[in-house]
Amino acid sequence: MTEPENPVALVIAAHPDDGDFGAAGLTAQLARRGWEVHFLVCTNGAKGTSDRAMTRERLIALRRDEQREACRRMGAKHVHFLDHEDGELVYDRVFLEELVRAIRTIRPHTVMTHDPQDIVIRDSFINHPDHRATGTAALDAVYPTARDHLNFPEHLEQGIEPHKTREVLLWSGNNPNYDIDITADVELKIEALLAHRTQFGDREEFIQFAKERWRSEDGRYLERFKRVVLQF
Ligand SMILES: [Zn+2]
After folding, report:
1. 45 with 59: CB under 8 angstroms?
2. How many A from CA of 94 to the centre of ligand 1?
3. What does the domain layout of the chain look like in residue ranges?
4. pTM greater than the 0.85 cutoff
C-alpha cells in the first residue's frame, strides 16, 4: 500500500464514542502503519446517561476521559474537544470556523466523519441531528472552506494556512463504496468502545452484541465508508 506524503488522519465525531463505532478498526490499522491520527469530538456528551444521580459536570469529564482512553487503545495520539451542547449542535459560522481551524492546523490527508446524507439509515435508525450537523459542517469545511484563503481570512493573520484534504471517508451512510476488513482488529475495536464505561455497562453483553451485530454474512468484520477522493 502506498502511503501519502502526509500520513495524517482526522476523525471528526459528534459525540464521544461515535468515531470509535465508525472507524476504530481503520484508526488502529493506520496508527500501526505510522499515521498520526487525531480525534475531534464536537459535543460535550452531556446527554449520554440514564443515571438520574449523575451530574452533567461529572458526566462531561468522565466522557472526555473515556474518549482519551479509547484513543490510547486505538493508537490515536491526539484528542481534541469542542464544547457544543450534546443534542443541540447547530451548523453555524462558529462551528464551521472551529472545524476549518482544526483542518488547517492538523492538516490531514484523510478526514473521517459522519455521513450526513441520509436521515433514515437502513430503514432502522434515525441519524442523530448532531451527526448530520457534524458531517455536513465537516464536508463544507473540507471543501471549499479550508482550502480558500478568503474564508476566515483572520486565520492567515494568525499564521494558519489554507489546507487541501485529499480523501474523505464517511461512516454510517446507506451507500458505502469502500470496505475496510477489520476482522483482525475487532477485539481491539470492542476494547476501545468498552473504554466508554458510562455507555456500555455490561462488558460481556456488549462483546456479544458487537460480535453478532457487526459480523458480515461471510463471517468477516468490516468498516464501511462512502469514500471521496478529492481530485483538485
Ligand atoms: Zn453520536
Report:
1. yes
2. 20
3. 8-229
4. yes
